TrEMBL record, chain A:
GO biological process, one term: siderophore-iron import into cell
InterPro entries referenced in this protein's UniProt entry, alphabetically: ABC_BtuC-like (IPR037294), ABC_transptr_permease_BtuC (IPR000522)
Listed name of the protein: Enterobactin ABC transporter permease
Main location, first listed in the record: membrane
TrEMBL record, chain B:
Protein name as catalogued: Iron ABC transporter permease
Keyword NAD: no
Cellular component aspect of the GO annotation: plasma membrane
PANTHER family cross-referenced by the UniProt entry: FE(3+) DICITRATE TRANSPORT SYSTEM PERMEASE PROTEIN FECC-RELATED, FERRIC ENTEROBACTIN TRANSPORT SYSTEM PERMEASE PROTEIN
Organism: Brachybacterium avium
Amino acid sequence: MTAPAPPRPARSRRPALVAIAAGLLLFALVIVRVLVGTPMVPLDLALRVIGGEAVPGYSFIVMDHRLPTAVVALLAGTAFGLSGTIFQTLLRNPLASPDVIGVTLGSSAGAVIAMAFFQADGRALFWFALLGGLLTAVLLLVVAGGGGPGAAGAADNRFVLVGIGVAAALGALISYLLTRLSLQSAGDALHWMIGSLSSSTWDRAAVLAGALAVLIPALALLIPRLRILQLGDDTATSLGLSVPRTRVALILVAVILCALTVAVTGPLSFVAFLAGPIAQRLAGRPSFPLAAAVGAVIVLLADIAGQNLFGGTELPAGVITGALGAPFLMWMLTRSPTSGSGR
Amino acid sequence: MRRSTPLVLAGGLLALAVACLLSLMIGARTVSPSTVVDALSDYDSSLTDHVVIHSRLLRTLAGIAVGAALAVAGAAMQGMTRNPLADPGILGINAGATTAVVLGVYLVDASEVAQFTALALLGAALGTVVVYAVASLGREGATPVKLALAGAALTAGLGSVVNALVMIDDSSLDRLRFWQVGTLGARSLADISRVGVLMVIGAVVIVAMAGVLNALALGDDAAVGLGVKVGRARALLGTAIILLCGAAVALAGPIGFLGLVVPHAARLLVGGDYRRIVPLCLLGGPVLLLLADTAGRVIAPPAEVQVGVMTALVGVPVFIVLIRTRRQVGL
């Protein structure tokens, strides 16, 4: 009859299977996030609450606290995962995630400036964070990406180098701002800087959902061009692609994804950094949907762990992603013969 | 761009002298150069200006020590790891040292420079070992990208731990948020000399091994071919780097950028030979740090902008110019 299945379909089916598994895992994690905690919520009560019934004591916990938190975690993880993967793919460098090249810190700096000089919170913080992230990205583009045509590898390397420099400068700026705040405000700013889901509301979930509803289709349209871009600038140009314009568009999408999310949750470290490489290891090749799912899994797991694993102390999700993300990334580095050698 | 080395070194010395003079002259109370000379040669404790200069003298000495230590450590790291991104900040050494100090402040209420030094050295050593071990495991060994990734991972991971600790304890936050910025003020001569001894040992080792750095920068195979015992050389250089970085963090807090920018600038001036780069870093590090510190005193009166912020402000443009003027930042 037919020959044994050639390797190609097997390879292309793997990401789909992994994505389905990730989707199921996400669904399970959302349920766990809603049910588990102090107090525990019985499943039947949770279902009745979600069905619209008012259950004294539980309606508030489920509808105003845990469910919006789970939704924000899901959306934030998705956005960080996509944003990191765009940067890493575009710049062909696992180091090029927004947390490493300073975009995340730019958003943080914007927010801390708002706290230091304008006593801002809520909405205003949000705009400052967005502004900070965008300004940082524009600075990076002007300084590093705006160079003339020519050696593509050098341009990529240059982008990451400039980004690491800018990140360090922003780190110093934030430390300085912390010395200018009152002790109380410095504590608040620091708490925000760690990244936490504790102030998640439906409002914030809606903002993130709205942004993703626009940005994900935009990204979907850009991905085929990104694949062409990966063939190299010269090849892409000869195929009729406007390289600078495509690059700017992709970076814009990535920055807005990242900055919006930072504005909502604070900089959850390592999520953008890790989602892409983990997805790639699972799927055997880069995959945006899977990176989004992995990002969401990381954030949800970190939040659940921070809420439940430390007795009375509730640790923000950012502490967990930071403290566990580092060893995990290091473990990946030792395991993988190739992931560290990408340009 | 390459200029004759003696000329560059002479220029470096001159720049260092000017930077020292400016550091002694300028501040909330600005004094004339002649008063500076008077105060140094014929100190009179009844004159306010002389007292001002005396206190600035300590700060200037700290600046020279920390600046030289960080710049030389950066140069050695860049050569040894063949990594243009190498910097005590980027490879996780500062993070290790900082975390150890923060843990010390939090757990045992550390406040003495001697305690800071012991903790910082321990932390720097642990950080270096972890980053290097992680990057070395796996098939390819310690490639620049793996080193930088491991360093970034450690920095971010330890950063969360520090933030979490500081978050639960307000008094640690109050002390640490000032120390964490990096500052040269408020150190005694005893502190500087005690920490300075460690720095001198580290710097001497690296100066003596500049030729070995040249070989290592060619790659391990070439270095072995040139008769270098690669493992031993790395161990020695690594120890020296840890001494320099740990001591610098203990004295002034984490100061970024110097270890990255100064060696690149030196390379631009005198070419790729570490026997020229390292001595120039000994001069260039203090120049940059002192100028940054001096500028920080006057940039936003009456408050002072800490030197860690200033090195970033000065460092980033220099760094960007370096990257832009060279097609590829190589070694």
